[in-house]
Amino acid sequence: LEMIAKTMIKEALPIKCLEAVVLAIYLTRKCVELQRFVMSFISMHGENKYSHVVLGVCCRGRFGAVGLSRQTDLMFKPLRYSKLSELINDFLFAYSGHGHKVVKLNISTTIPHFPHFLETINWKGFTFLPIAHLDNRWAPVVDEYARISTDGQSTSGSNRKLEHFSVQFQFT
């Protein structure tokens, strides 16, 4: 990822949302206070399916997001949400404002700041279908997932807890 990010900076070419997430991961690698995770959305507009991804962040119990989109309300979100479910609801509301229905949301496990050689990001640490749970019954489960994943600085320990968590709570 580091080489890709450095190349993007050097070339200064237009990028899409996935490249923006890679760049954000690289640029925040030294912000050890910041817990980082990827949020990928699959939405429908009519018969068309769309994919979008942002870097979710948590610092001192506040959630936000960094990303890139043609729609301003589908990218940057300041660290003002006290729960991950509030951040997700803001994205869901923004999507509905653009005539989209989010049919699937993937939340990765926490991204380490100094990854070991060949360590990969678990892009689908937690998956659920918000359209099937319009009553927000998913919110407490998502907030528990966030609590476990952002608990402490030990990413590997948190990720082991999340593997057990995702087995217990399946929303797909």
Automatic annotation (TrEMBL):
It comes from the Eukaryota. GO terms for cellular component: cytoplasm. InterPro entries: VASH1 (IPR028131). It comes from Hydatigena taeniaeformis (Feline tapeworm). The active site is at 17, 52, 69. This is PAP-associated domain-containing protein.
